[in-house]
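Sharing a chain and its predicted structure for anyone who wants a worked example. Both blocks are below, sequence first, tokens second.
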Amino acid sequence: MTFRLGGQQEINRMGYGSMQLTGTGVFGEVADRNNAKHVLQAAVKGGVNFIDTAEAYGPQFNESLIADALHPYPDELIIATKGGFRRPGPNKWVADGDPQFIRECIDGSLRRLEVDQIDLWQLHRVDPKFPVEETLAPVADAVKAGKIKWVGLSEVDIEQVERAEKVVPIVSVQNQYNLANRKWDQLVDYTAGRGMAFIPWYPLASGPQMLADKIGKVSTEHNATAAQIGLAWLLKRSPNILLIPGTKSLEHLQENLEAATIELTDEEFAELSR
């Protein structure tokens, strides 16, 4: 079950999101660094070749942790990072699209990840205080300079994707999306039609009880957990969806990876989608 990112590199659609490998409120160093390293190493050993991080996770600690755990990276491993958020404290996120800050994010990520080129750099948020053309100008410069291979966006609509594409080619969109929250259904289909990856964040929201009852019925049929069924639904929803469930637990990591082997029937998918 793979997807060709940027129309070029084939990657497994079950990836790993590293946001949980930070301190409380996604702020500061992770409590158990050795465990965090083991989780990252186990993910790659389990077949994950797409890891999602961000300058804002920690901030900065998370990228350095990934380098500590996995560098030198396997040739097939894609590390996606993001920039464009300032972090004044735990659970505090302030969008900053100032081109100078974006430039600093890119150079800082290169340094912390210990790479000469970022595989996929994503604008973490569009900052309404700056035209997106200004925000993305240093990103386009970084692509030309070979510092970034591919560019993606996070929490955007179709109009914003098309506006950004006038500045730099876009290969992925990362928005909140799951079985319970399907606000971005149209964007999923749009990106699929354009050959872009759609990367849902918060993929395991449980939703209302009615939905939990439906999931429970299907999970019993497959001898699977509710979380595994939620991930399996996303994989069946569209072939361009790349999953990045995160966890600090080796047990939960294995559970997430096994979700890629669950094949929902068309009837089960339709029932869950109602």
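Comments welcome. Residues 2-205+238-249+256-261 form a domain with the TIM Barrel fold (CATH 3.20.20.100).
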